[in-house]
Amino acid sequence: MAIKQLIKSTSGWLYLNSPVGRQQLQGAGVILMLHRVLSNDRAADLPHRNELCVGPKAFEHLLVWLRKHFDCVPLMEILQPNALRSERPRVALTFDDGWRDNAVNAFPLLQKHQVPASIFLSTDFIGSRQRFWWESLGETLWGSHGEKARMHLIECLHARKHPLPVLLDDIDVERRSLALLHYLQGLKSLAPQELEELTDECPKDSLPQALDWHQVRAMEASGLVRFGPHGASHAILTGLDDVRLSEEIRRSREALSNGCNRPLPVYCYPNGDNDERVRQQVADHDYPFALGTGTGIYRGDGDPLNLPRFGVSQRTARHPQLLSWRIYRGARP
Fold first, then answer.
1. Alpha-carbon gap, residue 142 to 257, rounded angstroms
2. Coil, strand or helix: which one is 212?
3. What pLDDT, in 10s, does the model give residues 250-273?
4. Could you tell me the pLDDT band of residue 332, with boundaries at 50, 70 and 90?
5. In the chain, which residue ranges form alpha helices assigned H by DSSP?
6. Topology of the domain covering 27-129+211-317
7. Is the torsion defined by CA of 55, 100, 261, 284 positive or negative?
8. In the chain, which residues fall in CATH 3.20.20.370?
9. Contact 235/248 with Cβ under 8 angstroms?
């Protein structure tokens, strides 16, 4: 671990175990944001996967650490009135998108450690073979599907005036992966239609990337997992006109109502992007709460339609004291 990270890690440990830290966090709520739990940790270590993916060993390490320092509770126990008056800080786990590995890799570990979670579904993907663009483009460009598929996609990107940076051909794996991460982040601003067209240029995967409704109902029946909407198509809501925005929210709500017994009254913004217009539309569709991606702890105040969360990467799952450092930063008045 680098010196800077070691200092943060040590400071985070001291904060959680100090009287000042315990007093600041008393009755507070911490909401964590995850996406994927891969089948092995080595795959999750590379920068272009690290932010959205954790490995099973790192995820289990995180769960053990959370249970030691927090009360692990369902999301609604943090959001409901008077729920934050416990002596220990509370933490709730949330997962975005609805990846299939949430059922295959994450759920068994949640069961083992009896940690509840909320999963927010991009409902158009659930039970379909529709693919998430980030995964399809990223893994094709990384070479996971072979050099022929990689070169074909590179040519398509060049034709659309999205040339790849030179560093994507770097012999150093870490630098190449970091360059890919930055490149993919830059593609987020593209129109959903263009991202879908680029995804269609990638090889078809043998298995769907998203959960199916049978998996959703099985996890819900356990009593440990609840589900909420994360958009229908995962379109960035701030970029939609009023009609499309309303339709996107309505379609995801209807899919959850048909597919789940107790969908959460919480909306989760794709990519965290929201503004006053989006929040008003979400409220008009009878959602009292919505999750953003701004960091901070929850004390029952602030905008309930833009709730803060702390993102969890492979790095912070391996070294949860780094997470406690970020919680310390978010808890300061």
1. 38
2. coil
3. 999 999 999 999 999 999 999 999
4. low
5. 3-16, 19-25, 41-45, 47-50, 56-69, 75-79, 101, 107-113, 133-142, 147-159, 173-187, 192-200, 213-221, 242-259, 276-284, 314-318, 320-331
6. TIM Barrel (3.20.20)
7. positive
8. 27-129+211-317
9. yes
